[in-house]
Amino acid sequence: MRYSLSRRSILLGATAFLATAGLAHAEHPLYGGVDFTRDPKLIPPAESPIDYPITSYAENLPQKFRRQQVTYGTSNPPNSIVVDPEHRFLYFILGGDQAIRYGVGVGREGFAWSGNAFIGMKRRWPRWLPPESMVERDPHAQQWANGMPGGPQNPLGARALYLEANGVDTLYRIHGTNDPASIGKAMSSGCVRMLNEDVADLFERVKRGTPVTVLTSGAL
User: Which residues are bridge partners to 169 per DSSP?
Assistant: First the structure.
């Protein structure tokens, strides 16, 4: 795992301090880090109470990035996930050298970590907590400094999967997107984004504890 123990200790220490002080804190520079304090009274629910309809976009993608069953030789067990950031693919392993392949878009954080993990949490239409640095430079993020409710305009899209390893949040996310044209591309921010229809499909195939392997790749 590429995050050092010292950085992890700092993050955990900051989290503990804020919790003790009764202040709201977040967990990641993209999804809400320990950068600054939010007003806990204004933070939206972790999930939207509305399960919005999902619009299909797949027919607008190049064929290779559309969801499809493919031959994929791997030692990973059935019902596990393999993320290949370098080639912009995510595989749900079926077994027998078969997998469901999804096209993905990859942001800077998506290239920052690799290794073995598992799904620690699942969210439908998750909220978005923009980081302080984004709030400072982006007028759109400024209006959501205390969090953007889940919904069709939310950059995390329809679903989000949160990865853990060795009992620790890896800070790695697989989520939907409100920018479907970004699939198959390298983006300036975010982890691994999927079409909303694809992340919703994957969401139903996996459960908490599902193993995930993120392959090593080059950086942006």
Answer: 164
